[in-house]
Amino acid sequence: MSDKSQAISALEAAYGELQRAADGIPDGRMTDVWFGEWSAKNLLAHMASWDEVLHEDLHRIGRGHIPTFAAFREAEVNDWNAFLVKPRKLFLLAQVRFESQHWHEQAVASFAALPEALFAPGNMVAALAAIDTGHYLDHAR
To answer: Strand, coil or helix: what is 30?
Structure first.
């Protein structure tokens, strides 16, 4: 299996775990706070927001442009999260579920459209795929 197909398979499996975890929570409890100050609904919205940015960044990388994630610093993660999730806190659960699926599919399609060479270890695309996979798994737990 190629680096690209392995990365996409791992991403799909991790997203599946996130969805199974979310599906195990009754709709009436999706807004209960579970993780710090966030509900399960907020976590799905959070992942959708990161996948939306990732989708666009993968297009930037494909064009040879600098992605927005190049500006990301771990010390600023709470600021990024607050900015990306704030508008989605207004979304109804059905919209959050839709966007979770939609932006995941868009990100996977964007990964799939990139050349195999960009998935080689040490490449930014390989790192982004691994980060997104880990991010899904962290929040699935």
So the answer is: coil
Q: Quote the CA–CA distance of 131 and 107 in Å, as a whole number.
A: 13
Place of tokens 């297009």: 59
Residue 38: count other Cβ atoms within 10 Å of its Cβ: 17
Residue 33 phi/psi, 5-degree rounding, is -75, 125
User: Across the chain, where does the E strand assignment appear?
Assistant: 33-35, 38-39
Instruction: State how far the Cα of 18 lies from the Cα of 41, in Å rounded to an integer.
Output: 12
Determine if the pTM surpasses 0.85.
yes
State pLDDT tens for residues 5-63: 999 999 999 999 999 999 999 999 999 998 788 899 999 999 999 999 999 999 999 99
| Exposure string for 86-113, b = 16+ CB within 10 A, e = fewer | eebeebebeebbebbeebbebbbebbee
